[in-house]
Design brief:
Length: about 280
């Protein structure tokens, strides 16, 4: 008598924030494709929201890999497209308030850098998606699951000081990594397992009392904050969660031109994901 094939587990997939380190999520998506496992829900923050939305819209992990390698190969072309999304002006250096000459618009970035147009609304996705952002004025976490898709993703990736905050639904919204870089609790559906991919952590350094520059300081502190928040998400959980830390600590949040090296460093995630899914809970 033939053995029945094991039922595929219902997976809730969590794709965390971490800037360019989040390109590691592509290896996870490729692995799920190879195993024939379709998540029943995806929750993403920042880069995790971007890749999660593209995947939920029908792109494969292989599609996303090809896009990342192609898109970040030509530095001059990327910088040109980034410049076209700029909303700040050089004169803003001497102005008060939130003026910033390098500030870019998140919606414009999505228009110019996503591999394919997204559906207009969450309801147009083939996999339910939750996107996390931070409410600047109310100091609160916001989770979007319905309605317009692009503003929610643009808000989730609005890194303070680099990407303009998004005004949406009577809120001023900023990067979801400020409040929930590993949005495990955003998974609502009944699942057998929550697979949480953590790309928040940067490498520790032994540099004594060497004083960093202001720009590096901002990003380093941001990495520190996200790693601490991701750790906090693991306390008090009542559902089965497998947290996998991607081996990309040696990369900076803005190392998108290192896409090929980030993907190569992340290949071990394939085995980790397969083990996490097949091991008994």
């Amino acid at each position: 008598m033939k053995k029945k094939p094991a039922a595929r587990p219902r997976i809730g997939l969590v794709l965390g924030s971490g800037g360019a380190r989040g390109l590691a999520h592509i290896v996870v998506l490729e692995t799920l494709d190879r195993l024939g496992i379709r998540p029943v829900e995806i929750a993403g923050t920042s880069i995790g929201a971007i890749l999660g939305a593209a995947y939920a819209a029908g792109m494969t992990g292989a599609d996303l890999r090809a896009h990342a390698l192609r898109d970040y190969r030509n530095r001059a072309e990327v910088m040109t497209r980034l410049f076209q999304t700029r909303v700040g002006r050089l004169a803003d250096i001497w102005r008060g308030g939130f003026g910033n000459p390098v500030l870019v618009d998140g919606v414009s970035i999505l228009d110019r850098f996503l591999p394919a147009p997204l559906p207009e609304t969450f309801e147009g996705l083939s996999i339910p998606l939750s996107v996390v952002a931070g409410d600047y004025h109310r100091l609160d976490r916001v989770v979007f699951r319905t309605g317009p898709l692009t503003p929610a993703i643009a808000a989730s990736m609005a890194i303070p000081g680099l990407v303009r905050p998004v005004q949406f639904e009577n809120r001023v919204l900023v990067d979801g990594g400020t409040v929930d870089p590993l949005p495990i609790r955003a998974i609502e559906r009944e699942v057998d397992l929550i697979l949480a991919i953590d790309v928040s952590r940067a490498a520790a350094r032994d540099e004594g009392d060497a004083m960093p520059g202001a720009f590096e300081m901002g990003f380093r502190v941001y990495d520190l904050m996200q790693a601490a928040l991701a750790d906090a998400q693991m306390t008090g959980l009542t559902r089965p969660v497998r947290r996998i830390k991607a081996p990309v600590e040696g990369f900076h949040a803005l190392d998108f031109f290192a896409a090929k090296r980030i993907l190569a460093a992340s290949e071990s995630l394939a085995g980790a994901v397969e083990s996490a899914i097949t091991l008994p809970l």
